[in-house]
Hints:
This protein is α/β, with parallel strands linked by helices. It has helices at residues 37-43, 75-96, 108-119, 162-174, 192-209; strands at 10-13, 23-26, 49-52, 56-58, 61-63, 67-69, 72-73, 102-106, 126-130, 148-154, 178-184.
Amino acid sequence: MANHxxxxxxxxxxxxxPNLAPLLLLHGTGGDENDLLGLGRMVAPGAAxxxxxxxxxxxxxxxxxxxxxxGVFDEDDLRARVDELADFIGEARAAYGLPAPVAxxxxxxxxxxxxxxxRRPEALAGAVLLRAMVPFKVPPKADASGxxxxxxxxxxxxxxxADNAARLAAQLSEAGAEVTHRVLPVGHGLSQADVSLTxxxxxxxxxxxx
Length: 210
Ligand code: MLT
């Protein structure tokens, strides 16, 4: 059942396996807090799952920040939304007793996670970005060192051009993150390869942190 008590409507599933980083699940446009729970369980069985619903509505569809057109972002809104989401992570960590989460975002959810890595990197332990694009025209100066990112792009993605995804990978590396970027022979939608690569990467990251 959705929880309405903290500053975002969200779902929370406590961990059943010790020593796994919690996952912060960030849905795409038109999704909600239920969308990525199944994916979260598949890629990190037993990890705590924290899944907020984006507060911006576009024609009734929840998102995490406003856009002016497809791929053209309202950057003032994006900055404010990154801050409110980072604050929610702090609230949820206190309420549920969690360490910093690894974000797992798809599309619009991946874009706000990328923006958070550049503006409030301390809020996240790492991130899996599925079909993310460059969030800021001029990236803020941030120190994301010590944090790992898996960026999975689609070579036939009609929303995220290949050079845009490559630029995002470069910006995250410049901020100090350790970035793995894989381009899959797929479009914007998720594929089985996304699930298996994410699962492998998360297993490797938790083994390295243990
Ligand atoms: C966005 O607005 O974040 C991107 O265009 C991806 C999308 O949600 O379609």
